Amino acid sequence: MNKLRVSYSLLNSWKAGRVDDCVNMYLHKEMPRTRQMQEGIEWDDKQMESATANGKLTKEFLDYPLVKPQTQLKLEIDYSEHFTLVTKLDIYDSPTVIELKTGKRSALSYLNSEQLDMYGLACKLKGLEVEKIMVIRYDQYNNKCDWAFKWMNETVEEKAHNFIQTYGGELHDYFGKIGIL
Fold it and tell me: In 3D, which of 107, 159, 168 has the Cα closest to residue 138?
C-alpha cells in the first residue's frame, strides 16, 4: 500500500469529521476560501515579504525582529512505513518556529494546537534546531496584536506523534478502503 502524505490541515479536517474536505484536499482539488481566509493569506504574504526584505515583520506584527528567517519553509519527512509528514512553516528563524495568525482568536488559544506540535516535531525530525514555537496574532478588525510561545520538549513531541498516528491511521485506512491509496 502507498504512503499517505499527512499535513496538519489534512489531519485536522479528518479529526473534525470533514471527510469530503479530506478527500478534496488530498486530491488537490480547489477548496473554497472565506473572506477571512483570504485576508489571512494577504497578511501572511506581507509578512513573508517584510521578513525577507527587512529582517523583521511589519508594525502590525510588532516589528518582530528576525535574524536569518526562512519563510514558507517546506519540510517533507519520511515519518513511517505508512506516512510522509509534510509541513510548511510560516517562518523558521533558528531556533524558533514562528506561526502567524490573523483574526479575533487570541495567540494564547493556539498554543495547545496540534499544528504547533507537528511543526516542532517536523523540525526536530529534519535535524533543525528548535527550542521555541511562537504564535504572533494580529486582529485586523481591532488593530491589536498579541503573541505567545511554548518551549519545545518531549511532551510537545509526544502530542504530535499521537496526533499523527491516531488520525493518520484512521485516514490511511479510509483512503485505502475507497481506493485513494
Answer: 107
Alpha-carbon distance 148 to 141, whole Å?
20
Q: What is the pLDDT of residue 32?
A: 86
Query: What is the per-residue burial (b if ≥16 Cβ within 10 Å, else e) of 47-68?
Result: bbebbeeeebbbebbeebebee
The three state secondary structure string of the chain is CCCEEECHHHHHHHHCCCHHHHHHHHCCCCCCCCHHHHHHHHHHHHHHHHHHHHCECCHHHCCCECCCCEEEEEEEEECCCCEEEEEEEEEEECCEEEEEEECCCCCHHHCCCHHHHHHHHHHHHCCCCCCEEEEEEEECCCCEEEEEEEECCHHHHHHHHHHHHHHHHHHHHHHHHHCCC
Q: Is the peptide bond before 95 cis (omega within 30 degrees of 0)?
A: yes
Higher pLDDT among residues 174 and 2, named by residue: 174
